[in-house]
């Protein structure tokens, strides 16, 4: 049987902003025997998402006093974050920020060349900047333009299904990968292609495919399960961000979308029985409208912002309407919040001082939310119009959705995994702790690409030997045998069976493993997921055209098992509500009396903040989670002569 073999020093899996930046830095460091491999060029999160004012978080560059150590301390203080990673992300932030400006990303500056910042969530220093609602798309486009100008090889429509590994002394390392070339899927080898390589930069994004309620673009599914299956260590899989988003067109509803104070209402499944559900829980119109306004600043769901009718109580009330009562929820920009439940009519004078001043300074004390939106952010209206939704004529259907994974695969301060020569970067790397400043993910992905590229150029750049290793060929043949055994034209299942398994998987995660969790439900969900995974692994398919869908569903099933195992372990070890999720507990506190005792939750007081939760799949397929101490902020050598000496002797990269 004929099959393709490709040989490169380094293969970058994924074509988002992090992966493209890594490829560019490899090239800039003299590495040209490289290739980018992607299942859909332009299909990832970077190229398809944004927000009201999508943020890039970096060291402050205006008159505010700041330093890399101050920024590192702020990142580290978020909890469950390794100090060496925090320091590198802070130290390298300006280098990568200016790298992007040189590539053409249009971050705004004033007449003196000063890049003025603003505050984002979990930020104290106004370090945030933005190139507009499509910052990550601008980054992607500028990076891709440069990649193409350098003629760096891109293998599009290649789905990675397995990482190849081998022993290296006491360690294990990657030696290559197997991918399905979708353009040759119908050949006898199912398009299976062997990539032999010295290094893999793994930039596949977050685990979007495990959620039903998701703001990830539909084209983004995630491939962390491929690395977990190979033995890569993960960390902090418990920590993800959730927030309000539109579901017909997937987009975060942060910033101006909330600050214009639209009406919230719910309906039954058929769009009837309209109800202004928020009014039942807020004592006054002013309190309710001010909480809606604050969702703009405080978009991610946060347990610390639910008491005293804080902004995150809105996420809970939306979740109750959609996931518990089975209703649909909408935001309507054509009407102010309605005065139902005995409330007075909406009036600006009843708003909090912060909300009223903001709208005044924006010259937006206008009659309707849509008028205010046109004044403050007309591009926000255009964005939806370009995606088939006219906010001047129709409401937005919304839900609390998964948005970003703060956890992911583990790596050292060069972003190398426990699997040597594997470098997980971008969202798939769990470099963030519990509370990360908004926009720090874009910075982290760029810094990671630079660090991985530098390490490879300095330490892993030896040329590949001619031919292929016996180990790679043996793993290729074993994989091909497995693929063939998955197909049974006579006794295999139809596509509807596979679709149902994936649908059940996604509904399970959004119900039990998103922002509302409990000890009993984590055990229940994990048991259901184990049962489903075993059933799925025993299936065969009738139609070869379902093969990739089947493989991906199996991978997502394993991914969900790892995430649910981490959630269960965290709760059993005494973990409480933090980050972007509640841990429900009958002995806890009630966020709002009107919600009743079923909503009692464990209030977070810093438990396990100095611990990282690690998760891995052992050689027998068992998933294990345990805590370790965070790595502290490094005490670096400030003496210039010593650093200069080590730099001259090439002792820095180690």
Q: Which helices and strands, and how do they pair?
A:
Blueprint: E1 4-13, H1 17-28, E2 34-37, H2 45-48, E3 55-57, H3 68-76, H4 83-91, H5 93-103, E4 128-130, H6 135-149, E5 153-155, E6 158-168, E7 171-181, E8 192-202, H7 224-230, E9 234-235, E10 240-246, E11 251-252, H8 256-259, E12 263-267, H9 285-297, H10 313-324, E13 328-332, H11 353-361, H12 369-376, H13 378-385, E14 396-405, E15 408-409, E16 419-420, E17 422-424, H14 440-459, H15 470-485, H16 495-512, E18 516-518, H17 519-537, H18 547-572, E19 582-589, E20 611-617, E21 623-629, H19 640-648
Parallel strand pairs: 1-2, 1-8, 2-5, 7-16, 8-17, 18-19
Antiparallel strand pairs: 3-4, 6-7, 7-8, 9-15, 9-20, 10-11, 10-14, 12-13, 13-14, 20-21
Helix pairs in contact: 1-6, 1-14, 3-4, 5-14, 7-18, 12-13, 16-17, 16-18, 17-18
Task: Describe this structure as you would to a colleague.
The mean pLDDT is 95. The protein is globular, with a radius of gyration of 25 Å. It has 19 helices and 21 strands. Among the domains are: 8-176 and 199-239 and 406-459, FAD/NAD(P)-binding domain, CATH 3.50.50.60; 241-402, Flavocytochrome C3, Chain A, domain 1, CATH 3.90.700. Strands 1, 2, 5, 6, 7, 8, 16 and 17 form an 8-stranded mixed sheet that branches. Strand 20 (611-617) and strand 21 form a beta hairpin. By secondary structure, it is α/β, with parallel strands linked by helices. Helices cover 35% and strands 18% of the residues.
Radius of gyration: 25 Å
General shape: globular
**Chain-averaged pLDDT:** 95
Strand content: 15-25%
Pick out the low-confidence regions: none
Distance between the termini: 43 Å
Secondary structural class: alpha/beta
- Please give the CATH architecture of the domain at 8-176 and 199-239 and 406-459: 3-Layer(bba) Sandwich
Quantity of strands, as a count: 21
Give the helix proportion (percent range): 25-40%
| Annotated CATH topology of the domain at 8-176 and 199-239 and 406-459 | FAD/NAD(P)-binding domain
């Amino acid at each position: 049987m004929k099959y393709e073999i490709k040989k490169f020093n380094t293969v970058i899996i994924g074509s988002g902003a992090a992966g493209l930046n890594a490829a560019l830095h490899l090239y800039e460091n003299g590495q040209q025997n490289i290739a980018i491999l992607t299942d859909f060029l332009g299909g990832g999160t970077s190229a398809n998402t944004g927000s009201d004012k999508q943020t890039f978080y970096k060291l402050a560059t205006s008159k505010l006093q700041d330093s890399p150590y101050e920024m590192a301390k702020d990142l580290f203080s978020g909890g469950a974050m390794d100090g060496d990673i925090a320091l590198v992300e802070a130290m390298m932030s300006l280098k990568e920020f200016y790298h992007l400006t040189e590539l053409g990303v249009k971050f705004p500056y004033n007449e003196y060349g000063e890049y003025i910042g603003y505050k984002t969530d979990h930020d104290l220093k106004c370090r945030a900047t933005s190139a507009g609602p499509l910052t990550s798309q601008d980054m992607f486009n500028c990076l891709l333009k440069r990649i193409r100008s350098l003629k760096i090889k891109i293998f599009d429509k290649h789905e990675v299904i397995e990482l190849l590994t081998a022993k290296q002394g006491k360690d294990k390392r990657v030696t290559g990968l197997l991918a399905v070339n979708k353009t040759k899927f119908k050949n006898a080898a199912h398009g299976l292609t062997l990539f032999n390589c010295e290094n893999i930069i793994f930039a596949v994004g977050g685990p979007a495919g495990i959620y039903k309620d998701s703001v990830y673009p539909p084209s983004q599914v995630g491939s962390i399960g491929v690395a977990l299956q190979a033995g890569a260590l993960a960390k902090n899989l418990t920590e993800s961000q959730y927030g309000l988003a539109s579901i017909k067109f997937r987009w975060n509803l942060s910033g101006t979308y909330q600050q214009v104070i639209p009406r919230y209402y719910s309906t039954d499944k058929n769009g009837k029985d309209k109800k202004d559900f928020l009014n039942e829980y807020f004592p006054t119109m002013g309190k309710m409208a001010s909480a809606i306004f604050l969702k703009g600043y405080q978009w991610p769901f946060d347990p610390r912002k639910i008491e005293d009718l804080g902004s995150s109580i809105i996420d809970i009330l939306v979740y109750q309407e959609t996931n518990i009562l089975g209703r649909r929820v909408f935001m309507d920009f054509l009407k102010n919040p309605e005065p139902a439940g005995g409330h007075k009519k909406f009036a600006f004078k009843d708003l909090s001082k912060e909300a009223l001043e903001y709208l005044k300074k924006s010259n937006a004390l206008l009659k309707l939310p849509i008028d205010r939106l046109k004044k403050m952010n007309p591009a926000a209206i255009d964005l939806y119009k370009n995606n088939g939704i006219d906010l001047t004529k129709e409401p937005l259907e919304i839900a609390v959705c998964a948005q970003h994974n703060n956890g992911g695969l583990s790596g050292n301060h060069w972003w190398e995994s426990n699997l040597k020569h594997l470098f997980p970067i971008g969202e798939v790397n769990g470099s963030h702790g519990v509370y990360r400043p908004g926009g720090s993910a874009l910075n982290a992905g760029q810094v990671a690409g630079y660090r991985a590229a530098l390490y490879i150029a300095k330490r892993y750049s030896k040329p590949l030997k001619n031919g292929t290793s016996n180990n790679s060929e043996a793993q290729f043949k074993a994989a091909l045998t497995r693929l063939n055994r998955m197909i049974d034209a006579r006794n295999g299942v139809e596509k509807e069976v596979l679709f149902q398994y994936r649908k059940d998987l996604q509904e399970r995660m959004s119900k039990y493993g998103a922002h509302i969790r409990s000890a009993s439900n984590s055990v229940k969900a994990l048991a259901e997921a184990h049962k489903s995974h075993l059933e799925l692994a025993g299936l065969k398919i009738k139609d070869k055209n379902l093969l990739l869908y089947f493989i991906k569903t199996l991978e997502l099933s394993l991914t969900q098992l790892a995430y649910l195992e981490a959630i269960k372990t965290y709760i059993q070890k005494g973990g409480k509500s933090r980050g972007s999720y509640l841990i429900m507990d009958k002995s806890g506190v009630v966020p709002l009396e009107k919600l009743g005792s079923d909503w009692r939750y464990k209030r977070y007081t810093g438990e396990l903040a100095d611990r990282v939760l690690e998760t891995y799949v052992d050689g027998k397929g068992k998933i294990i989670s345990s805590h370790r101490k965070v790595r502290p902020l490094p005490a670096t050598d400030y003496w210039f002569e010593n650093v200069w000496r080590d730099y001259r002797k090439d002792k820095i990269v180690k």
